[in-house]
């Protein structure tokens, strides 16, 4: 649509790219080629950090930290360091290093530097200030569900963040991302979101000037600076994939309402994330709430059913906004219809009970600051945000890794923003789950009244 043609994207060429991606990913893991995972300058900075930590005469082993499609804004490396401390005793350190992609095409479209600046700000300022407030108020079980941060480097095209490898402490990711999560995981995450969101209300209560500064510094910038034509095309492409799950005759009501939503998805998406630091219900949000951004420690490691601890990953999309944006993204992108039919109300209650009890420890009052009725109203207003993200996240989660582009090797934007699937089973899984999301949004009466009138789901509001 007005763009100059990119490189050859014939079936043969795409096949060669996929084959190249496969062998690149395979040999990164087997050969531990650290130069592909962390740059020479990042390695130098890691060595300086090790000196500061008192680790000497060390050996560094680097392996890939993710498989293809698990992180589009970073190259994730797991780094194991073995060495000696100043007394000559053995030392082992485990890090995760997230480095920004260097692909010029990607960086010309996506505001990579803004994403890394935001994550660094969260680790350097927001989370430490939240922790300081919890210490000052003698909170017995504080929110500490994030990795230890060592260093952030924000040099242009050399952005990198060094964190502690939480998997070395017994944390695991959900193994099968193609399946929706169970109730135990869903409620555990939502309770922790309740604590995290309560911290914003607590800081607004006790340190209003500092909170206002943080709110201003966490305004949504990533999507505002995403190159507009590609951003809007991205929303439209995934929305079309969701549209294909509906039959214009059998699903006429769903089809007609989704059609209105699809026509304005780009505008709705931007307006939903428009931060307002004067809104007394808004909080610092996690932002990127798909299941791969959580690690769990379990009561019984063998079965991995009931988590006992959690670690939030990836704060690049963190921004100021309604708590309902995190909740709707998480619930509709990670749970299935069966769970929502049984437990949707219960999940919101568990979230708010956690929010209420944690805020009370700071002397706050949830009934006055953010009542359960207000939460339900916010979910009606912002719930459609969950559909926007579900069109994307469910397509990625249910896809095969071979069909997910490697952003470092891509030279054509269509490889990123028009992700395809060669697997009929995947398409069936995706269409079944996204159709369920659309159905639930209509049944629950969630609307897109956020600055956009005559929303597609407004006519069937349920109280």
Care to describe what's here?
It comes from Aquatica leii. InterPro entries: CHK_kinase-like, EcKL, Kinase-like_dom_sf. This is CHK kinase-like domain-containing protein. It holds the Pfam family EcKL. Residues 161-361 form the CHK kinase-like domain. This protein has helices at residues 11-31, 34-37, 40-52, 104-109, 112-136, 183-206, 208-217, 222-225, 228-243, 252-263, 265-272, 323-334, 337-361, 366-369, 372-382, 384-397, 413-417, 424-444, and strands at residues 56-64, 75-84, 90-99, 149-153, 160-164, 283-285, 294-298, 307-312, 319-321. With 463 residues, the protein is of the alpha+beta class. It has a domain at 178-460: Alpha-Beta Complex (Aminoglycoside 3'-phosphotransferase, Chain: A, domain 2), CATH 3.90.1200. Helix 9 packs across helix 11, helix 9 packs across helix 16 (384-397) and helix 12 packs parallel to helix 16. The longest helix is centred in the N-terminal third of the chain and has 25 residues, at 112-136. Residues 1-32 and 447-463 have low confidence and may be disordered.
- Content of β-strand: 5-15%
Indicate the overall shape: globular
Radius of gyration: 22 Å
CATH fold call of one domain:
Aminoglycoside 3'-phosphotransferase, Chain: A, domain 2
State the end-to-end CA separation: 43 Å
Instruction: Give helix % range.
Output: 40-55%
**Order of strands side by side in the largest beta sheet?**
1-2-3-5-4
Tell me the number of strands: 9
Residue ranges: pLDDT <50 for 5 or more in a row? 1-32, 447-463
Helix-strand topology string: HHHEEEHHEEHHHHHHEEEEHHHHHHH
The helix/strand class is alpha+beta
Tally of individual helices: 18
């Amino acid at each position: 649509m007005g763009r100059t043609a990119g490189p050859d994207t014939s079936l043969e060429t795409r096949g060669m790219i996929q084959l190249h991606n496969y062998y690149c990913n395979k040999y990164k893991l087997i050969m531990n080629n650290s130069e592909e995972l962390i740059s020479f300058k990042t390695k130098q900075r890691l060595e300086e950090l090790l000196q500061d930590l008192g680790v000497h005469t060390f050996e560094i082993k680097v392996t890939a930290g993710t498989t293809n499609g698990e992180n589009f804004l970073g190259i994730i490396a797991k780094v194991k360091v073995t060495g000696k401390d100043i007394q000559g005793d053995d030392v082992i350190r485990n890090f995760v290093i997230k480095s920004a992609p260097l692909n010029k095409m990607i960086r010309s479209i996506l505001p990579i530097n803004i994403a890394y600046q935001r994550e660094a700000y969260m680790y350097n300022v927001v989370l430490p200030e939240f922790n300081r407030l919890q210490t000052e108020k003698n909170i017995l079980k504080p929110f500490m569900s994030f990795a230890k941060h060592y260093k952030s480097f924000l040099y242009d095209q050399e952005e990198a963040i060094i964190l502690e490898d939480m998997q070395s402490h017994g944390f695991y990711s959900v193994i099968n991302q193609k399946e929706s999560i169970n109730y135990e995981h869903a409620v555990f995450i939502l309770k922790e979101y309740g604590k995290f969101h309560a911290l914003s209300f607590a800081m607004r209560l006790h340190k209003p000037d500092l909170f206002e500064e943080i709110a201003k510094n966490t305004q949504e910038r990533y999507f505002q600076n995403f190159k507009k034509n590609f951003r809007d095309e991205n929303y439209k492409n995934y929305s079309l994939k969701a549209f294909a799950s509906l039959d214009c005759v059998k699903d006429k009501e769903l089809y007609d309402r989704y059609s209105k939503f699809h026509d304005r998805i780009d505008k709705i998406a931007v307006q939903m994330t428009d931060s307002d630091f004067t809104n007394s219900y808004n909080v610092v949000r996690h932002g990127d709430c798909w299941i791969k951004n959580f690690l769990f420690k379990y009561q019984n490691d063998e079965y991995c059913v009931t988590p006992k601890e959690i670690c939030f990953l990836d704060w690049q999309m963190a921004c100021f906004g309604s708590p309902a944006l995190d909740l709707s993204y998480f619930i509709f992108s990670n749970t299935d219809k069966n769970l929502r039919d049984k437990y949707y109300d219960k999940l919101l209650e568990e979230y708010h009970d956690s929010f209420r009890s944690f805020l009370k420890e700071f002397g706050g009052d949830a009934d006055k600051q953010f009542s359960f009725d207000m939460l339900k109203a916010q979910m009606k207003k912002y719930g459609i945000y969950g559909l926007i993200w579900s069109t994307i996240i469910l397509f990625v989660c249910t896809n095969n890794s071979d069909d997910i582009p490697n952003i470092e090797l891509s030279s054509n934007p269509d490889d990123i923003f028009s992700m395809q699937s060669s697997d009929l089973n995947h398409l069936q899984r995706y269409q079944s789950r996204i159709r369920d999301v659309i159905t639930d949004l209509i049944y629950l009466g969630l609307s897109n009244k956020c600055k956009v009138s005559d929303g597609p789901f407004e006519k069937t509001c349920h109280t």
